[in-house]
Specification:
By secondary structure, this protein is an alpha/beta fold. The chain folds into 2 domains: about 5-40 and about 80-110 and about 265-350, FAD/NAD(P)-binding domain; about 120-260, FAD/NAD(P)-binding domain (3-Layer(bba) Sandwich), CATH 3.50.50. About 35% of the residues lie in helices and about 25% in strands. The protein is built from 11 helices and 27 strands. It has helices at about 15-25, 50-55, 60, 120, 130-145, 155, 165-185, 210-220, 270, 320-335, 370-400, and strands spanning about 5-10, 30-35, 40-45, 60-65, 75-80, 80-85, 90-95, 95-100, 100-105, 110, 125, 160, 195-200, 225-230, 235, 240-245, 250-255, 255-260, 265, 280-285, 295-300, 305, 305, 310-315, 350-355, 360-365, 370. It has a 5-stranded parallel sheet, with helices on one face.
Length: about 400
Amino acid sequence: MNKQKIVILGGGYGGLQTVVKLQKSLSPNEAEIILVNNHPYHYETTWLHEAAAGTLQPERVRYSIEDIIDQRKVQFVQDTVEKIIPEEKKVQLGTRELSYDYLVVALGAEAETFGIKGLKEHAFTISNLDSARKIKEHIEYVFSTYHSDGRNTDEQLSIVVGGAGFTGIEFLGELVNRIPKLCDTYQIKRENVKVYCIEAAPTVLPGFDPELVKYAKSVLEKKGVEFLIGTPIKECTKEGVLVDQGNGETKLIKANTVVWAAGVRGNSVIEKSGFENVRARVAVDSYLRAPGYDDVFIIGDCSAVINKETNRPYPPTAQIAMQQGKLVAKNLKLLLQGKKDLETFVFDNKGTVCSLGEDDAVGIVFGKKITGFKASFMKKVIDNRSLFLIGGTSLVLKKGKLKLF
């Protein structure tokens, strides 16, 4: 009797959690498990803003996939996913084709530009480890050449962050902590560095608790961030960004550095593969399966799970992706055992914390609002917990944020 083949696409939070749970619960005789990822490493997406600002070295953000998987039970394939053909139960990779009995799609997100002209050409995104490294290196280059390239203008040092959601705010928190150090290193006056946060929505951290929003905005303003709220970006150019001032008028905010952090969409492979989707996110059923395909599970940024209280999808976070991975692994084991009664997914929201730099944050944990050092402490606990759930104590000791006091 042939073993069932489980193919998992993506080595992010959801994909790795699925693999870890499967390799613990299945013997090599029960299933053939294949993990596909385009890099030989996993990177902590929720730490990318630190790598981009330069407050955390990029190498700290990643760890080897082969250090996590049990290679007696899981085959790792480093390749790029091009397209899924669900009718044929096949996946087209860059260099080969894989068949499957069960497929788990956990391909992560891509930056959403909303069709804004010039963003792809002139703005950075905090979308992966390479893009974060480019932002860090660009900012360091701008500061290091300020006195030597002949321009020596404030616009050369100006930084625009597009988006005041979690990614934008967390990046700003790290950035404004690092700028004084860069100024000291390169003998630049702090007042010469302008930092703008531009958000189309009427508030910072849309949908978050208003009291915590006020706290976060105040902290960042005191450190030099100028907020332009309710101000859509119309275009990004070599000189900076054009913003909508209303009444048909626009204004150019000059900046040598533009970082776009105003939204994500699912992976474009979802669209290429013909799944029903909105912005490359699939409204999965209660078992996290794609509509019409009982053998395809979709989790993480590529899935949309509706919050019945708001009738809107839950935001795509590491927390929900890891819970999805855990459930999918459990349901796959049930399917391999010939059982049809699968478990349904219920998101257990343990809270959300938004970092404002090394020693400050805002959040809601177990229903309680927290700020300052207490929130920052909880953020580090959450970061360490995600490492523990994937790689246990050894991974926490190797990569964790252990400076808790």
